[in-house]
Amino acid sequence: MRERQTRQKRIIYEALTALDHPTATEVYGYVHERYPSVSRATVFRVLGGFADTGKALEVRMAGTDVRYDYNVRKHCHVHCRVCGRVADVPMPENLPIAAPFENADGFRIEDCSVEFFGLCPDCARKSEQVSRIPS
Amino acid sequence: MRERQTRQKRIIYEALTALDHPTATEVYGYVHERYPSVSRATVFRVLGGFADTGKALEVRMAGTDVRYDYNVRKHCHVHCRVCGRVADVPMPENLPIAAPFENADGFRIEDCSVEFFGLCPDCARKSEQVSRIPS
DNA sequence: CTGGGTGCAAACTCTTTGCATTCGG
DNA sequence: CCGAATGCAAAGAGTTTGCACCCAG
Known about the structure:
Chain A is α+β, with helices and mostly antiparallel strands. Chain A has helices at residues 7-18, 24-34, 40-53, 121-132, and strands at residues 57-60, 66-69, 75-80, 86-90, 108-119. Chain A has a three-stranded mixed sheet with strand order 4-3-5.
């Protein structure tokens, strides 16, 4: 019938907002710490359900497992190549990018995702310090 | 010492060019069909090596396993949401996209990847035919 | 009550690793 | 020859699934 509200779902959603773009396993870690009875299978099932019903986004970034994002607005991500931290970046609507490719190879393009890579503030600072060390 | 040229590497590279953005497992399938003695581990090791030495790119697209692409120029991909086919799309250098985000959340952005989703020509045609069926 | 949701454990898929053996240069 | 590369099989990691039991509505 209708979707049922359960303790597990509440806890898992809480983990989603408390953690930063977590993987399913990270969500499981958070949840299991507080509510050891919640099983891994439930975490995967519930996260998958969130993604299906639009309550969360599955984020698949280069080099990592699937991550989940409770922010379901259209946006893109920055990925720190050192510590792996992921941050949201707003996706402007006037993105002048789809147009040039609209008929790329005959494909009918419906959507587009952009991903950035670089250094997060912390790692950027650290790398500057390293390079400042006198020889 | 120096990297060694082997029969396996040649075969695996051949698979890479013969197949279209294959996953490691697809490469293994192709290779194993012709040269049953080549092991799965070798396929994974060699593909990883290609990626490390710049002979191929690892492509991680939403919803699929890692794929390999012998085209190592900077470019992006279109992904058919029906059949999963992947095609290359040129990545223009004047992409006016990185600039607006250069300081996104304090990140120092170094690279950017763009991914498109849609319908490949075949699937687009089929979906039109379906919708044309009289009720 | 009833059937959607859950826990558990086993199964699966993809990928990596240790180690003895092979073979390219 | 010598060590990089391979084959094999076992181990890992992440995720899915079957099934009996549980509990939200």
